[in-house]
Amino acid sequence: MATQTDTSSSAVVTGSFEGDLRRYLRGLGGLLVFLLVWWVGAMTTQPSYLVPGPLESVRAFVDLFATSTAIVVPILGSSLVLPTGLAHLAQTLFHYVPGLLLGAGCGIGLGLTMGWNGALDDWLRPLVRVLRPIPPLAWIVFAIVWFGIHHTGAAFIVFVGAFWINFYGAYGGVEGVSGELTDAASTLGVERDLSMLKLVALPSAAPQVLTGFRTSIGRCWMIVVGAELFGAPGVGYEIINASNNLAMATSVAYMFLISLAFLCMDVGFRLLERRDLAWR
Amino acid sequence: MALSSDSSTGRDSREKITIQNVSRSYESTQALADVSFSVAEGEFCCVVGPSGCGKTTLLRAIAGLDDPDGGSILVGGDPVTGPGLDRGMVFQEYALFPWRTVRGNIRFGLDRPACDCPDCEARVKELVDLVGLDGFEDAYPKELSGGMKQRVGIARALAVDPEILLMDEPFGSVDARMRDRLHGELLDIWTQTEQTVVFVTHDIDEAVTLADRVIVMDADPGTVQSTFSIDLERPRGRTARDFVDHVAQIRDELGSPVETSH
């Protein structure tokens, strides 16, 4: 048989070096304009604590790492001394990470099962409709009475937030599995429902599951700060604590810190996605 | 259901597929009404007809992907109760697993149940050679053209060495030049493997190019209208007088101008 192939895979050049450079310069320009507006705004606003200036905020940010704070590691109970900024970030992560992972795990689990099993879907769909619209932060009252507003309570709120986003990612992903692919798999010897889930539904739903998880990383940062404004320890608590002392620059410094933490997680996860979803 | 065996289909050649009085209706349309015919072992059989004549439904029923309301389908004498590895299927829109490479797609059927790996690798290599995809083993489907995707589809179906190959307008989304080449390749493969092929198409030229026998179906309700034997030497030139005559005959039989090749 002929071995020549009808490849037409001409490399598509997406964005030349100059195009990239222009984009970066524009982005930088936007940042500079923002800094200028901020700086002028801070200069002209009285009293000065209303808008802390950029320089003052950067100084406050640096100060977060100049002093140390001792925190207690939950469960272990041992104490840990870290630069103040990192210490409070760690406190946040102590409830953010377990809440996110557990919520994502349960959400993905239920989403996959409901998307795949019609009977379970019938049973639970109305319940999901009712519970889904409740904003995660509304559960704070139960977090407080059940767990107290500490790590467990805050983790619970994060759990609720992560749960729904991941639930919908997985549910939609499994529902969207093409019938043609399952047909192809059955003609190739896939008989059991569980094998079909593993061999076809899961890989096919993976992009949506991962997108759901990535979205939940961001959403849970918003939720976790919300929970901390109610008193759970962490960066969110420090924002309100500093503002109570009118140290607004410190509040801004903690806001930076949250932004940085989120960026690192988001970029990290995107890299992981790109590696694992090369087929898309 | 008629149990008689003295039907018009002869018993001289061994019947691989026997379709007896098969009916299938959806809400408002009768896709198949009392369809009966048989396909001999090793025969290349094309089914042509206008859209809505139930030819795809029929193919899916043979594959075991669709359950007819009435009648029976026998494959090698046994009634079809579901999909099986004895019947490979090639889909119009390829239905490749996008998360698997060319190799991974071809291997899919070989891994159920998990088989001996060195053998599998050799088998995959053999199929890659057979369909002319050397050097593309690690490509993902999105990187392939339509013609190449369908070669993967064919290789994947052939991998488990089915006795019957069911093809649902497999070259419908491929451009004309590539289609001609794939016809030649498919006939080569068929000659080598001696499989029984049921090939659904709406393109009469394609049917006459490939088939030993062409089954012409009519729509609404879907029935078998007539059957043509094509006793021409392969490869068949499309300008040869006999070829043109066959095409004209089938076109007359279909009555109205059906969708012609793209």
From TrEMBL, chain A:
<feature type="transmembrane region" description="Helical">
    <location>
        <begin position="136"/>
        <end position="165"/>
    </location>
</feature>
<keyword id="KW-0812">Transmembrane</keyword>
<feature type="transmembrane region" description="Helical">
    <location>
        <begin position="24"/>
        <end position="41"/>
    </location>
</feature>
<keyword id="KW-1003">Cell membrane</keyword>
<dbReference type="InterPro" id="IPR035906">
    <property type="entry name" value="MetI-like_sf"/>
</dbReference>
<dbReference type="GO" id="GO:0005886">
    <property type="term" value="C:plasma membrane"/>
</dbReference>
<keyword id="KW-1133">Transmembrane helix</keyword>
<feature type="transmembrane region" description="Helical">
    <location>
        <begin position="61"/>
        <end position="82"/>
    </location>
</feature>
<comment type="similarity">
    <text>Belongs to the binding-protein-dependent transport system permease family.</text>
</comment>
<feature type="transmembrane region" description="Helical">
    <location>
        <begin position="220"/>
        <end position="240"/>
    </location>
</feature>
<dbReference type="GO" id="GO:0055085">
    <property type="term" value="P:transmembrane transport"/>
</dbReference>
<feature type="domain" description="ABC transmembrane type-1">
    <location>
        <begin position="89"/>
        <end position="273"/>
    </location>
</feature>
<feature type="transmembrane region" description="Helical">
    <location>
        <begin position="94"/>
        <end position="116"/>
    </location>
</feature>
<dbReference type="InterPro" id="IPR000515">
    <property type="entry name" value="MetI-like"/>
</dbReference>
<protein>
    <submittedName>
        <fullName>Binding-protein-dependent transporters inner membrane component</fullName>
    </submittedName>
</protein>
<keyword id="KW-0472">Membrane</keyword>
<dbReference type="Pfam" id="PF00528">
    <property type="entry name" value="BPD_transp_1"/>
</dbReference>
<keyword id="KW-0813">Transport</keyword>
<feature type="transmembrane region" description="Helical">
    <location>
        <begin position="252"/>
        <end position="272"/>
    </location>
</feature>
UniProtKB/TrEMBL annotation, chain B:
<dbReference type="InterPro" id="IPR027417">
    <property type="entry name" value="P-loop_NTPase"/>
</dbReference>
<comment type="similarity">
    <text>Belongs to the ABC transporter superfamily. Sulfate/tungstate importer (TC 3.A.1.6) family.</text>
</comment>
<keyword id="KW-0500">Molybdenum</keyword>
<keyword id="KW-0067">ATP-binding</keyword>
<dbReference type="InterPro" id="IPR017871">
    <property type="entry name" value="ABC_transporter-like_CS"/>
</dbReference>
<dbReference type="Pfam" id="PF00005">
    <property type="entry name" value="ABC_tran"/>
</dbReference>
<protein>
    <recommendedName>
        <fullName>Molybdate/tungstate import ATP-binding protein WtpC</fullName>
        <ecNumber>7.3.2.6</ecNumber>
    </recommendedName>
</protein>
<dbReference type="GO" id="GO:0016887">
    <property type="term" value="F:ATP hydrolysis activity"/>
</dbReference>
<keyword id="KW-0813">Transport</keyword>
<dbReference type="GO" id="GO:1901238">
    <property type="term" value="F:ABC-type tungstate transporter activity"/>
</dbReference>
<comment type="function">
    <text>Part of the ABC transporter complex WtpABC involved in molybdate/tungstate import. Responsible for energy coupling to the transport system.</text>
</comment>
<dbReference type="InterPro" id="IPR003593">
    <property type="entry name" value="AAA+_ATPase"/>
</dbReference>
<keyword id="KW-0547">Nucleotide-binding</keyword>
<dbReference type="GO" id="GO:0005886">
    <property type="term" value="C:plasma membrane"/>
</dbReference>
<comment type="subunit">
    <text>The complex is composed of two ATP-binding proteins (WtpC), two transmembrane proteins (WtpB) and a solute-binding protein (WtpA).</text>
</comment>
<dbReference type="InterPro" id="IPR050166">
    <property type="entry name" value="ABC_transporter_ATP-bind"/>
</dbReference>
<dbReference type="InterPro" id="IPR003439">
    <property type="entry name" value="ABC_transporter-like_ATP-bd"/>
</dbReference>
<dbReference type="GO" id="GO:0005524">
    <property type="term" value="F:ATP binding"/>
</dbReference>
<feature type="domain" description="ABC transporter">
    <location>
        <begin position="17"/>
        <end position="244"/>
    </location>
</feature>
